[in-house]
Amino acid sequence: MFTRLGTSLAIGLLRFLAILPYGLVARFGAGLGALLYMIPSRRRRIVHINLKLCFPEWDNARREEVARQTFQHAIRSYVERSVQWFGSARKLEKLFQVDSAVDLSDPDMPPTILLAMHFVGIEAGSIFMNHVLKRPCGALYQPLSNPEVDRIAKEARGRFDAEMVSRADSARAVMRMLRARKPVMLGADMDYGERNSAFVPFFGVETCTLTSVARMAIAGRAQVLPIICEVLPNYRGYRLRVFAPWENYPIGDEVADARRMNAFLEEHIRLLPEQYYWVHKRFKTRPPGEPGFY
Questions:
Q1: Which residue, 73, 220, 227, 244, has fewest beta-carbon neighbours within 10 Å?
Q2: Rounded to whole angstroms, how far apart are CA atoms 279 and 88?
Q3: By C-alpha distance, which of 106, 158, 153 is closest to 133?
Q4: What residues does each domain of the chain span?
């Protein structure tokens, strides 16, 4: 009963926040994040471990500042689900600037994989990308543990004509969509375990990295367009960046192709280190015999 009531209250709060001005919602989220960072927690510890692994050259003051900003951005991103899930298309349009290296309206776009990176704007960018494309598209998602929240999130993420596909059922669905020239959005910079993965360097740390992007690109004869959604300063909204398709990718070497993806990600994290989702256990799976970090 309490769980059901708590879920209803949380969704009700998000619906209420969606009608408020975005700047007010964003400031509330940032303030809540700053407050929660002051409380010792497992997630705060994870952020510090990740930053220490990836940026050993930073001093404690630099690491502390980025960790605090990361926590603020992460909590703010959850609060901003209100606008992203329940705000009108017109409201979202006012919040976005889109910088694309390709013509997203091209009716002759070849089979395309949209490779979303896990910066804090990924939820906003993925939802709005469906709107920008103005055509049916597909998107992979990881089901949430709460069935009611999962149902609402799935509906919200697919509200601009996106076919939502559970990661567990993704292989055949992705091939079907690519054959139909339906762009497919997926994220690959997470640790999903050793299956369909390889250990390749990420900021110098051997990291369990998905190899399925390259295999799907080969099987579907698809181009791969990386996308990053950046949170703009001064609560101005988001910048959705769509990069040119990777040339000479994939090459058929799973390790080299995975390293290519990680190298691209490293380059852009260095530009916005506080906006990457360091709250996740990026280095959870270790090579055999190597102790865990967390």
A1: 244
A2: 29
A3: 106
A4: 2-275
